[in-house]
Design brief:
Elements lengths: L3 H8 L13 E6 L4 E4 L4 E9 L2 E9 L6 E7 L10 E6 L5 E3 L2 E4 L6 E8 L20 H6 L2 E5 L5 E5 L4 H18 L12 H11 L11 E9 L5 E6 L9 H11 L5 E2 L5 E2 L1 E9 L3
Parallel strand pairs: 1-11
Antiparallel strand pairs: 1-3, 2-3, 3-4, 4-5, 5-9, 6-7, 6-10, 8-9, 10-11, 12-13, 12-16, 14-15
Helix pairs in contact: 4-5
Length: 285
């Protein structure tokens, strides 16, 4: 079982030192082909990018046919700035989006990494209702027009990965997602219920950065969580939320770490996979 994203979240989230350094614009070329990971409970695209001694790995994870992805990057080319938000652009076809992110270093190798939940590779319609999972067209033509990924503001150096046209890689990822849905029965599964909601709320409250409220910000985050037959959260997907989405990643991280669920019986009476759709509201108290 290969769950790189889950492993990093569970084990290696430690603070990143803000070492002083001059900002640069770094462009990294691919040094490996795209690999599709058919994991037990998710599908991922992975590729490595290099520039001299700088190397960055990229993973795009998907847990359902909805066009939302969990993004993970790791490598020495990632140095955090003091900004609480990241600008992410799947370009040059799409506009940049400002959103939150999680960042840390590996406890063993000290390699920096960052994680973002609920990333979209195309613009979400402004008319889409907060808390919903709107349909976003990811046509082959649109994916072919996306050839690079740029991250800035949240990093000291602006980092661009030369992805190459994304139509064929995304086609391969969607084949994995289709197979995953059929294997786990994700198209018609029951609803899960969380058993420790109060504990999770305290966990979020203790870890929420008060600086995020300096502009009297409020946030509503709705997530869809895949729960396995043993009642464990296996993947988290973010719906459309209040931008710049400072709260999204914290909610998914907390659920993956702390949420507990009752196993859900399937049609045959045996525990089965289930979804939980949960909304969390952050307000200035």
């Amino acid at each position: 079982m290969r769950r790189l994203l889950n492993l990093i979240l569970a084990t290696f989230l430690v603070p990143v030192a803000h070492a002083p350094a001059s900002a640069e614009k770094i462009t990294l070329a691919p040094s490996s082909p795209w690999n599709v990971d058919y994991a037990d409970e998710s599908c991922s695209l992975r590729r490595t990018f290099d520039l001299g001694d700088k190397s960055v790995s990229l993973q795009l994870e998907q847990i359902s046919s909805a066009p939302y992805f969990n993004l993970m990057m790791a490598g020495e080319g990632l140095r955090r700035s003091s900004s609480e938000t990241m600008r992410i652009q799947f370009g040059p076809a799409e506009d940049a989006v400002e959103r939150g992110f999680l960042m840390g270093t590996s406890a063993q190798s000290r390699t920096p990494f960052l994680v973002m939940f609920g990333v979209q590779m195309a613009a979400v319609p402004e008319t889409a209702e907060i808390g919903t999972f709107p349909s976003i067209e990811l046509s082959a033509e649109r994916m072919a027009a996306i050839t690079e990924l740029t991250l800035s503001r949240g990093l000291r150096d602006e980092v661009t990965l030369q992805l190459g046209p994304m139509d064929k890689p995304m086609e391969a990822l969607q084949a994995c997602v289709t197979d995953l849905a059929a294997t786990l029965g994700l198209d018609d599964i029951p609803t899960a219920s969380m058993t420790n909601g109060r504990e999770l709320a305290r966990y979020l409250q203790d870890r929420f950065p008060n600086t995020a409220f300096r502009d009297e910000a409020e946030g509503i985050v709705t997530v869809r969580v895949l729960v396995d037959p043993e009642g464990k959260a296996k993947a988290c997907q973010v719906a459309r939320s209040v931008r710049p989405a400072l709260f999204d990643d914290l909610v998914c991280y907390a659920i993956m770490q702390k949420a507990e669920f009752d196993p859900v019986p399937g049609a045959d009476g045996e525990p089965t996979y289930a979804y939980l759709v949960q909304s969390v509201r952050f307000v200035q108290g």
